[in-house]
Amino acid sequence: MITLKQTIISWGLLILLTLVSAYVGQVIENNVLFIVSVLLIVFLKGQQVTDIFMELREAPKMWRMLLLSYAFVVPTIICVIYLL
Amino acid sequence: MLLEFTLMNNTSLSSAMVHLPESNVNERIKDKRLPGDLAMWFFILAELTVFAIFFIGFAVAEQLNADMFVSSKAKLHPIAGLINTISLITSSLFVALSVRLLHLRKVKTSLYLLVISQFIACVYLVVKIWEYQFLFSLGIDIETNTFFTLYFLITFFHFMHVLLGMVILTILGINAYKGAYENDISGFESGASYWHMVDMLWIILFPLIYII
C-alpha cells in the first residue's frame, strides 16, 4: 500500500512541477524547448497522479500502462501538432 | 513400487506448492489489486478519450488560427489557472489521504480529510466562476471567436465533471459516516479514482490553455 508519506511527497512534487511549468514560459525563449519542457512536465505530473494518487503502481500492469500511456501519448500528440 | 514412488512424488510436490510458491502468488495477487470497481475504470477511460479529442482539437485549431489564439490567450488570467491547478491537486491529495486512512479503518479522520478536500475544490469553483464573469464583463462569450468557443466548451465541460465529482464524494462521505465501508472500500476507491481523473484532465488543460 502506498503510504501517507509517499502521497504527501508526491503532492509536493506536483505543486513544484506546476510552479516550474508556469515559470518556464517566462524563462525559455526557444519555442521548441519551451513546448517540449511543458509537455514533459505534464507527463511527469500524470505519472504521479496515476502511480501515487490513483494507486495504480500496485495495480495490474495493463491498467497502469493504459493510464500512463494516456499521460504520455496525449501530450506527445499535442507536442507534434505544435511543432509541425 | 511405481505407486509408492508416485505417491511420494505427489506428497513432496504438494508440500513444495504449499511452502514455496503459493504464498508468493497470493501476495502478488493481493498486491496487484485494481483499486475500485472495474466498471469505473472503463468509465474513466471513456471520459479520458473524450477529453483527448478535445485537447487534440484545441491544438489543431490553435495551429490553424495562431494569431487569434495568442491574442485571445492574453485576455485570460494565468494566476486564476495556477490557483485552480493548485486547488485541484491539493484536493486530490486530501482524497488520496482519505482513502489511505479508510484502509487503516480510521473512518472519522478519513471523513475530515474528505470534507477538507471538498472545501479546497470549492476554491476551484469560485475562481472558475469569477473567471467566466470577468470574461463576460469584457464582452467575451462563447461566440466571440474559435478560441473562446473551445475555451468555454472545454473548461465548462471540465467544470461539470468537478461538480459531478463533488456530488459523488459527498455521497461517499455520507456512506462512510453510516459505516458502509467497514468491510469493503472499493466503492469509495472508485469515487476517489474519478476525482483523480478530474485532476489529471486539468493537469493537461492548464498548460494547453494558459501556458503554451
Short account of what is shown:
The complex is a heterodimer of chains A (84) and B (212). Chain A is an all-alpha fold.
Please explain how this structure is put together.
- The complex is a heterodimer of chains A (84) and B (212).
- Chain A has 84 residues and is mostly helical.
- Helix content of chain A is 83%, strand content 0%.
- Chain A has 3 helices and no strands.
- In chain A, helix 2 (31-53) packs antiparallel against helix 3.
- The longest helix of chain A has 24 residues, at 4-27.
- Chain B is 84% helix and 0% strand.
- Chain B has 8 helices and no strands.
- Chain B has helices at residues 2-19, 21-31, 38-64, 66-73, 78-103, 107-137, 146-177, 186-211.
- The longest helix of chain B is centred in the C-terminal third of the chain and has 32 residues, at 146-177.
- In chain B, 34% of the residues are buried.
- Mean pLDDT of chain B is 88; it is low at 1-23.
- Chains A and B meet through helix 1, helix 2 and helix 3 of A and helix 3, helix 5 and helix 8 of B.
Characteristic terms for this protein:
heterodimer; A: about 80 residues; mainly alpha; B: about 210 residues; elongated
Strand content of chain A: under 5%
Parts with pLDDT < 50 across at least 5 consecutive residues of chain B? 1-23
Helix/strand/pairing class of chain A, anyone? mainly alpha
Could you describe the largest sheet of chain A, including whether it forms a barrel?
Answer: none
- This entry's quaternary arrangement is heterodimer
The N- to C-terminal Cα distance of chain B equals 79 Å
Strand residue percentage of chain B = under 5%
Described by strand count, sense and barrel closure, the largest sheet of chain B is: none
Number of continuous helical runs of chain A: 3
Residue-averaged pLDDT of chain A, rounded? 93
What's the arrangement of secondary structure elements?
The complex is a heterodimer of chains A (84) and B (212).
Chain A: H1 4-27, H2 31-53, H3 61-83
Helix pairs in contact in A: 1-2, 2-3
Chain B: H1 2-19, H2 21-31, H3 38-64, H4 66-73, H5 78-103, H6 107-137, H7 146-177, H8 186-211
